[in-house]
Here is the input.
Amino acid sequence: MTERTMTKADLVTSILLIVFAAAVFLISVSMPTMAEQNRNPLAAPGIVPGFIGVVLFLLGLAMLIRSLRRGAPAFFAQDRGKPAGVDRASWGRIALTVGLCLVYALLLGRVWFPLLTFLFVFVFVTAFEYDRKAPIAGQWKIPLFAAILAACTAASVFLVFQYLFLVNLP
Amino acid sequence: MFEGLQLFGQAIVSTFTLRALFDALWSTQLGIIIGMLPGLTATMGVALLTTLTFHMAPNNAILILICMYIGAIYGGSRSAILLNIPGTPANAATTVDGYPLALQGRAGKAIGIATTGSFLGSIIGMLAMVIFTPLIGNVALSFQSFEFVWFSIFGIIICGNLTAPKDPLKGWIAGFLGLFVAMIGMEGIHAYVRFSFGSTNLSGGISLIPAMVGAFGFAEIISVMRVERYEVVKTTIDRVIPKLSEVFRYWKTIIRSGVIGTFIGAIPGVGEDIAAWVSYDVAKRGAKPEEREKFGKGSIEGLLASETGNNACVPGAIIPVLTLAIPGSAPAAVLLGAMLIHGVRPGPLIMIEFPSFIYEVVAMVLLATFMMFVLGLSMVRPLVKVLQVPRQKLMPVIFILCVVGSFALQARLFDVGVMMVFGILGYVLREMDYPMAPLVLGIILGDILDKNLRRALILSDGSIAPFFTRPICLTLFLLTMFIVLSRAKWFRALLAKIFRKKAAV
Here is the structure.
């Protein structure tokens, strides 16, 4: 990340942090003091989270002031309409990784574990090894090896956890 | 003193069994492999193994985790030397001199030197552990809630300061976010449920291990998959076993790096990576002029300094785990979590409740260190093949282990969700230069801060004076203030003014 994008990111995160910290503080203040149960109000559950909220608020404020001093709003104004200078290839890889992993985590418990694991590893390996520029015919080995790896992973993880570590997999 | 030696002797006898040797063998080797593979860190290795060993007897499981920890921190030097990519963040300083040595065709020698350095560093750290753990433990017995409040705040501040040297503000934010995460769920004094918004899952709190597997495992997978593939250097591996004279020429560097590494390890949350850099830096400054020229171009001394420093940090990081229940580094945080899972309660009372446990841990460190030394000098060539496994084949399998590992501890799908959230959040935060170590430290210290601050307020009947009048409290308060203020420009200017005046007088 360049210094310029970092300053812009800091402005946004500091505002989010301030809002978050304020919410934490307000929720903490509204927690019961337990005094009505004859407990010592000095041990109220809201004290420590309230303190953390205050500190986070101050830290967020410090970052807000710093990013304003470094000229974050001006950067935003200047960069408006310009294409964001992101590296599309690496964003694609991030999106693919996170996407596949999310789908796996969401389907966990709904699809039989070994089958889901097999499909995940197979799709992951194939998707990352497939070369769009090369002819498809020459790439038949990729899914084959991916399938072997996927089958081995699914079987070994399932067997080891189910029977050796006695974990009931989802 | 002699009682300690006797306990240590007993611990060695009880630890060095056949079963233990076997466990140490495979777990150290696995640790070396995990450390070697870029993207698999010591923290992740220890966290994943915690989930796999929680059915075992406590001592076996903790031995395996310590072996994994020591093995992985050492193993990272392999990829640092051969690929110019640190296998774990701890080995970043190793690349500076290790990789040039590999390019000069001296990869074998570099590996041998790194192994010896790691071995000696670990031994120095272990000696410090034997001497200081009981001492600190006895002092810690007199600590009250007031001290623990300051320890948790001081821990967050110094950890944030040192793990984000460019921008400590972000380190502190990460640390306090971690403290907040610890507030979620049922609290320990009145069993009041905080920040759960009616969710039964959240009211159970966020468990440390899934959060760490996410922040150090899944986040790492995303950043590994982001970059283009890396190439292995084609290098011949020459003689691995180093000549003794080559190593002992630098005995001063070794002792200095060992002491620095151990000390940095003992600072809360500040881990092997910082230890390696500081010891490298000090070695460079202290080197003879003709040797200093070689730093960065394949200096044996530089390589020794960084590898001795990072491995000495491991036993150093375990000292506060045992005596204060405050982890010295991120992998040590998992180790602390694992000890709690296994029913060992580290902290000031350990000297009374489990006095022999300290020495057992030292014996485990000793065993792991010897295992690392032997394995590190053997089977070097076949292991290089591991580095050739393409990451797109490795990462999905690691992800499956992250998922199953998070699930296995409590058989809750919610923990898998926690892992995913911390992974994605951790990746985003890391991209914006927020360090992860203070976040994790915060999750552990949150509970300590919560209970002790409230207890302290009851003890003092609402007065905050004891927080500033007790000697240790005052020291910690002044140190904390100094760390925070030394980042402010006006404070530095003020200090400069005062010192100039004194110099003028």
About this structure: Chain B has 25 helices and two strands. Chain B touches chain A through 55 residues (CB under 8 Å).
